[in-house]
Amino acid sequence: MHIKGTRISVEIILRKLFHNISIDKILQDYS
To answer: Name one Pfam family in it (predicted).
Structure first.
């Protein structure tokens, strides 16, 4: 099982999904 590969793929998908949302705004909310 390629756990690292799967994790990277998930991170890429999440980045693409959250790219539409203002990442800076989210970071500011959690800051």
So the answer is: DUF433
Sole residue written with tokens 């959690």: 30
> Do 14 and 21 meet the contact criterion of CB atoms below 8 Å apart?
no
Q: In one letter, which amino acid is 15?
A: R
pTM score, whole prediction: 0.41
Give the CA dihedral 20, 31, 7, 11, nearest 10 degrees.
20
**Which tokens belong to 27?**
């970071």
User: What is the pLDDT averaged over residues 4-15?
Assistant: 84
**Could you state, in order of their start, the residue ranges of all structural domains in the chain?**
1-31
